[in-house]
Structures are given as C-alpha cells and as structure tokens.
Design a protein that fits this description.
Layout: E1 22-29, H1 35-48, E2 53-59, E3 68-75, E4 97-100, H2 103-111, E5 120-124, H3 131-135, H4 144-154, E6 157-161, H5 163-170, H6 174-184, H7 192-200, H8 207-224, H9 231-239, H10 249-255, H11 268-272, H12 276-293, H13 295-310, H14 316-333, H15 338-345, H16 348-358, E7 369-372, H17 376-382, H18 385-398, E8 408-411, H19 415-425, H20 435-454, H21 459-467, H22 477-499, H23 504-519
Parallel strand pairs: 1-4, 4-5, 5-6
Antiparallel strand pairs: 1-3, 2-3, 7-8
Length: 552
C-alpha cells in the first residue's frame, strides 16, 4: 500500500532554520604586538557566550618583524540549527570588522579590498616605519592622512586613535587596547565583563593582567568616544596654561613638551607674530635648538625665521616656503657632531627606550654596545677652528680623509663607557668655537640671505631653495656626501640664479629636478653625482736594500 505524502506539510528535515548572520573579524597586527593573544581572547569570549567560533591566522614575513593576519568568524546560533560552515580566510568586501594595530597595516587591508561599505574600521593612528621609509635619503614617510581619508571614505564607520600611546601609558601591549576598542565600538555580541574575564584568565590577578585591564579600559573609552581625540592628550591640553594672544593651539601644545623648568613664555610673543601655519613648526624647531645649544641658540633660530617671514606675503605658497625653511633650518642648526651623538646615546630616555624595545624583564641585565667609527673629520670638527683647520690640512696632505678611522665598540652600560660618553657630551659649551660650528654658520648665513632675496622674486625657486638643506644629514660618510651634494647644487644652481635674478623662475624647474636627483641617489651611487675629490701626489724613496725597480 502506497503512502501518500501531503504536499502541504513540508519535510521537517528540509525546513530552513532562520540563522543569525555570521560576524567576520579581521585582525592586522605586527609581530610581537599580541595579535595572537587578541584572537585568543575573542575566541574564549565567544565560547563562553555559547557561540560557534573559528579562528585562523596567516603569518607573513614582512618588513616590520612579520605582519600577521588573524581571521575570526562566529555566529549566534539558532535553536536546532545545524553547525555553521565558516570560511578559512577573509574575502574582499566581506569583512564586518577590521582592526589594525598600526596605520599602514590598515592601509594594506584597504588596498586589498577588505574595507567596504559594510565594514567597521578600527585602527591605531600611530606609525611603525617600514624599511623602505627608513632607507629613503630624504623624508620617505608615507602620508598617514591618505590612509585615514581612504578608510573614512570606504568604511561604514572609522575609529582611529593612537593605540601605541595608550598602550605605553598603560604599561601593556597594544593588543589589550585593541580588545578594548572592539568592545567600546559596540561590535561584540557579549558584555564588557566577558572581555575582562577573558583577560583575567580565570582569576589570575598578576601585574601583567592589571596592566592589560588598564589598557583595555583606556581603549574602550577611546573607541566609545569615537576615537578622534586621545582623552589623555585632551585633558593635558585643557590643564595647560593659556597661550599668548595669537599663538595657535598646536604651537602652544608643542611648547608644553619643553623640559621641566623651562620657561617658554619669553618666545611666545615672537612665535605668535608668525603666520599661523608656521607657528607649530617654529615652536618645535625652537625646542630642538634649545636642547642642542641653549636659550641663545634657540633665540637665534627664531630671529632667522622672523626675518624670513617678513619677506613673505599672506599667500599660502609663500607661507609654505617659510614653514619648509623653518623646518630645514632647525634640522641644520642641530647637526650631529661627536658631542651631539655622545649626548643622545647617554641619555636616560634612550636607555629606557631600548629597555622597552627589547622587553627587558625585572631581574634581567641589559648591556648596550655602541658601534662608533670616528674619523679625522669628526675629530677636527670639535676642535677650535684654527686647530681643526690645521688638522684637516695635514690630513688632506697625507691622504687621511675618509681613510683614517678608528672602530670603537663602546659599552655604554658600563661605568667607564658611560663616563666617556658624558665627558664628550660635556664639551657642549665649547661647540660655538669649534670648526664645524664655524663652517655651518657660514653656510647657514649664506643660505638665509639667499632665501630672503629669492622669496619676493620667485616663490617656485624659493620653495626649492628652502628644501636644499635636506641633503645635509647623518654622520661620517653620509654627512660628507651630503655636504658634497650641497656644494655642487649651490654652485650649479643658486649662485647663477642670484647673479641673474631675472632668470629665477626659469631656473626653478631645473633646480628642483637636480635636488630630487640628489635626494633620491642611493649611497652606493653618490660618487657619480659629485665632483671627484682631488688627491695629493706622494713620492717615496726606495728603502735601503729594497733592490732596484723592475727593468732597472
């Protein structure tokens, strides 16, 4: 007997069960930042909430300690539903939440199509520079605003704040701050208490757990506030004393970074008289010069910027030239000689930075060895001008330049190594009388005079001239090559233009091309861009008993 099946009654095994949508989270982190720990916390929270969850990772050998992507999917399962089928890797345009520990990592994810109209983008705004950025002869940093603009344009929602700063303030890894940002953004289906329980790990309240909880709380608050401003920085700005009339907030905030006990009010009226777009750069340059050589040196820097500002009109192009010139002058005035290098290498802040970077734990011993290779030029540079010039004449006559160098492995964490560095740094009051300072002062004075003369006549030429000191950088061979490039560009483009002011605009394009070529020149090819340095001829008599020359 056949059994009739009522078509109006569906087969229970084939009835579709309403499913909750799968949440897809992509984590982009650098090596050593705790991305795997963050993924583990999320998985634990999902399991505690009774949700099906799956996590995969794709390790990468990147330029910055190995960038790794972690992909997590979970689903709020309906009663009676079959287990979901999760994907093993993310697909472009199908990521609900993307969180990045560093801004360029967010940019990489944007470039690969993981940020779309349905994506919540959470990223840190701080940068960890790539190898290519560090290798560039000039400023090779990528524009962070381009990444932020792309993220805000493509994503449904974008939250960005400095997670690195928050992590340092909390004394924890950035992964804890990222976890707090996810919770604060409201993209997790469980309560905040569940996140904190996952961090605590079942009640273990050690020092690291407390720091992680503090970082989690700070990240939660920042993301809940929209992430546009760092609350700690905002509180500091609100508590700071009122700036002088006309001094913009960014410049005033820059002055607050002055060392404790430094009274910057003496410079605030002069800074306030500068164009608004120049004030912040001038303030930072002033503090740099103050740290380099003291208040008088800082005042000298500010006077040069004021003099150049008086030659500019109110157009944005001329103001941009003044800002570039202020930045170039500050870096130039704070050149790296033996005294400066010794001072920087023996500061408490540097030892603390190295300890943080290598992750020194309590009870461990840190030893730092400085690799130094001073040559005759570095020695002559710190001597009084006459003695330095005499030493350089002797070195040139005997062929010591670029060849007579001493390789030193100086343990700066030892007593004698640290004392030696501090003794070299103590020569700072003698620097104004040194050969290097005299040479730099002459070049800087000529550059400032030329810039003031060119700016009213040709903004295009002045813009290139303001960037000319960018070729002067570094220490040792790098610094020597930069000075050769500067001399060649000055003689080939600046001097002829000053001699014929009517041709300034016509010469600007060629000048700009030559400067870019010098800045982009690899160090190994530097010799091809500068004139060959003349070498002295030296004659030697045959030593007694050395024998007759061949063919004699």
């Amino acid at each position: 007997m056949d059994t009739a099946v009522d078509a109006a009654v569906p087969d229970p095994s084939r009835v579709p069960v309403a499913r909750e949508p799968i949440t897809r989270v992509l984590i982009a982190a650098l090596g050593g930042e705790g991305g795997g720990v963050l993924a583990g916390w999320l998985v634990q929270c999902a399991r505690d909430a009774g949700l099906p969850v799956q996590a995969t990772s794709v390790p990468g050998v990147a330029q910055r300690t190995g960038a790794t992507s972690y992909y997590i999917e979970w689903q709020a399962a309906a009663v009676g539903a079959a287990p979901p089928v999760f994907a093993l890797h993310p697909l472009a345009g199908q990521v609900d939440v993307l969180i990045a520990s560093e801004l360029l990592e967010a940019g990489r994810m944007v470039e690969r199509g993981f940020v779309a109209a349905n994506t919540t983008l959470i990223t840190s705004s701080h940068r960890v520079y790539t190898t290519l950025e560090k290798m560039a002869p000039t400023d090779g940093r990528f524009d962070p605003q381009a990444v932020l603009r792309a993220g805000r344009t493509l994503a449904r929602r974008c939250i960005a704040f400095d997670m690195g700063l928050v992590a340092r303030q909390s004394g924890t890894a950035v992964s804890a701050v990222m976890f707090g940002a996810l919770a604060g953004a409201g993209v997790l289906p469980w309560a905040r208490a569940g996140c904190e329980a996952a961090i605590a790990g079942g009640g273990k309240a050690g020092q690291g757990v407390q720091a992680s909880l503090a970082g989690f709380a700070a990240g939660f608050d920042a993301a809940a506030a929209g992430g546009e401003l760092d609350s700690a920085a905002a509180a500091t700005a609100q508590a700071a004393p009122a700036p002088a009339a006309g001094l913009h907030g960014e410049a005033h905030a820059a002055l607050q970074a002055a060392p404790a006990g430094t009274d910057t009010t003496r410079w605030q009226p002069a800074l306030a008289a500068l164009p608004a777009a120049v004030q912040a750069t001038a303030a930072r340059g002033l503090l740099r010069c103050l740290d380099f050589q003291g208040p008088d040196y800082a005042t000298r820097f500010l006077r040069e910027v004021e003099a150049l500002s008086r030659c500019a009109d109110d157009t944005s192009a001329t103001v941009a030239v003044v800002e570039d010139a202020a930045r170039s002058l500050a870096l130039w005035m704070c050149f790296e000689d033996v005294i400066r290098v010794a001072d920087l290498k023996s500061r408490r802040a540097r030892f603390e930075q190295v300890q943080a970077e290598v992750g020194v734990r309590p009870g461990e011993v840190l030893r730092i060895t400085e690799m130094l290779k001073p040559g005759v030029e570095e020695v002559a540079a710190v001597l009084p001008r006459r003695l330095g010039e005499a030493l350089m004449r002797t070195a040139s006559r005997r062929g010591w330049i670029g060849r007579a160098q001493v390789g030193l492995h100086l343990p700066s964490t030892s007593a004698w190594g640290f004392v030696l560095l501090r003794l070299l740094a103590a020569l700072k009051p003698l620097r104004p009388h040194s050969l290097r300072q005299a040479e730099e002062d002459e070049s800087m004075a000529a550059w400032c005079v030329a810039l003031r003369a060119v700016l009213p006549r040709s903004v295009a030429h002045a813009a290139v001239l303001a960037r000319l000191p960018e070729v002067l950088k570094g220490y040792g061979d790098t610094q020597r090559r930069g000075r050769d490039h500067y001399a060649q560009l000055w003689a080939g483009h600046v001097v002829p233009a000053l001699a014929a002011p009517a041709t300034l605009a016509d010469r600007a394009q060629a000048f700009a091309a030559a400067l870019e070529a010098a800045l982009s020149l690899p160090p190994t090819d530097a010799a091809t861009a500068v004139a060959v340095t003349p070498q002295p001829l030296r004659f030697f008599r045959n030593r007694p008993g050395a024998g007759a020359p061949p063919g004699g």
